[in-house]
Amino acid sequence: MSTPNLRELSVNGLWHNNPGLVQLLGLCPLLGVSNSAVNALGLGLATLLVLTCSNIAVSLVRGVVNTAVRLPAFVMIIAALTTCIELLMQAFTYELYQILGIFIPLITTNCVILGRADGFASRHNPLIAAYDGVMMGLGFCAVLVVLGSLRELIGTGAVLANMHLLFGPIAAGWTITLFQHHEGFLLAILPPGAFIVLGLLIALKNRIDHHLAERARAAVQPQAPSASRRVRVTGVID
Amino acid sequence: MALPEISRSMLRNGLVLALFAVVTVGSVSLLRQATAERIHEAERAAQFRVLQEILPPDSHDNLLLDSTRDVQHPLLGYSSPLPAYVAMRQGVPTAVILQVLAPDGYSGAIHLLVGVNADGRLAGVRVVSHRETPGLGDRIETGKSDWILGFTGTSLQEPEPSRWAVKRDRGAFDQFVGATITPRAVVRAVHNALQYFDANRETLLATDALQPAPEDALERPESVREPARHSRAGSDAASDHLPANQPHVQDGASR
């Protein structure tokens, strides 16, 4: 298997093969905890950490485990890592741990993690696997945070409320109120809002991709020979 | 004796999996031991913060977390005994914080802490957890509105017993625009807690046989067996949840 270059991995994780917007993996936590920015960031970071560590661990043991028992072995690694994260969150961010509740243990069942473990980490060296884990995790985390912030903003008129649950007392004043006397558009915070906002985000991503492809095609037509380099440059904007 | 190929691979795979189980379980239990102390502290700190909101530190000189007594009564809503926290100053009990369950919230039970001063007046009420609708019923939280602070200073006599209800039921307490069931449930639960306190004042405020609170003293309602929900009339349910973007109508007045 060819070694993918780092740039390709980043673009894949963050944009072209984004777990939240393109692969649509891990939708349960994505929709479940994205009702505020702090919840989204908390679970996003936890997922990022589990994903990176599980990629490294799976990559390290890829010579030991054969194909017949690889899935149970990977699941054991992921479950153990998730439990570790859960214990750490309980110890250091207790209130956030209580709010996220069942969604922390559910990280184990996030298909992004098993998918990357089986599909990528088990075939690459630990460094590359770790980098892929970070990029995929960042892509997932970014979608979660954007979704959480949008829903919080539309639903309550403010973003970044209760950030002190994650960052301690310094973050107490981080709340940004954009609409002072906003009555709150409840739909955004309720579960249907998660589906609607995610749908709009996917539509927006497709729109941007379409637009970029159009521009690339327009750039190719007038002067075909020198165009290839420009196509690449415009193609990786994210 | 050479094993057949298939048994050899089964044995090998089994051993690999067993090794994985040992390593993963081992690392989890190591971390568990390492964080146990810290988690214990975090749990106590979280409990302490909530209790302190009702009874500020200068109102008592004992450690609330170490002076509890298990209580259970139908008026409190819980089906299992839960600790009540006794506050004292110079050995004299000044207040008690009861854990109370309002079983008839709009979406399940509401877990409350009700602080009652020795003279029967409320020291304060706080919501520990609930599943009320965001934006409507969740105004019982202190972070969302000051409504729940309105209980402070009230007692069984003040307002008079017939006025222990929301305004819509000709009582003394505000309801929320678009949500009547939630405040109604909280008012009823607080009133029940006061009645329980009134009937059991001596036992509650006794200074003997106090014990430290267990770590999970402030249970979340999900983990407590919930009493059956009260059935509610259709008109109530309709008025409780207005569509989010509809202009708010002052209910009660129009009916």
Automatic annotation (TrEMBL), chain A:
E.C. number(s) listed in UniProt: 7.-.-.-
Pfam families given in the database record: Rnf-Nqr (PF02508)
Keyword field: Cell inner membrane, Cell membrane, Electron transport, Membrane, Translocase, Transmembrane, Transmembrane helix, Transport
TM region(s), chain numbering: 45-65, 71-89, 127-147, 159-179, 185-204
Subcellular localization: Cell inner membrane; Endomembrane system
Main location per the UniProt record: membrane
Membrane topology category: Multi-pass membrane protein
Highest taxon above the source species: Bacteria
EC supergroup of this enzyme: translocase
Quaternary structure note: The complex is composed of six subunits: RnfA, RnfB, RnfC, RnfD, RnfE and RnfG.
Family per similarity comment: Belongs to the NqrDE/RnfAE family.
Function summary: Part of a membrane-bound complex that couples electron transfer with translocation of ions across the membrane.
This protein's name: Ion-translocating oxidoreductase complex subunit E
Protein source organism: Stutzerimonas azotifigens
Gene this chain is encoded by: rnfE
TrEMBL record, chain B:
Subcellular location: Cell inner membrane
One Pfam short name: FMN_bind
Residue numbers bearing the FMN phosphoryl threonine modification: T180
Predominant place of localization: membrane
Disordered: annotated segments: 211-255
Cofactor(s) essential for the protein: FMN
Membrane topology term: Single-pass membrane protein
Entry's EC annotation: 7.-.-.-
This protein's record includes keyword Cell inner membrane: yes
Transmembrane segments: none
FMN-binding domain span: 105-197
Keywords, alphabetical: Cell inner membrane, Cell membrane, Electron transport, Flavoprotein, FMN, Membrane, Phosphoprotein, Translocase, Transmembrane, Transmembrane helix, Transport
Composition-biased stretches (Basic and acidic residues): 217-229
Function: Part of a membrane-bound complex that couples electron transfer with translocation of ions across the membrane.
Protein family membership: Belongs to the RnfG family.
Quaternary structure, from the entry: The complex is composed of six subunits: RnfA, RnfB, RnfC, RnfD, RnfE and RnfG.
Entries under NCBIfam families matching the protein: PRK01908.1 (NF002519), rnfG (TIGR01947)
Protein's name according to its UniProt entry: Ion-translocating oxidoreductase complex subunit G
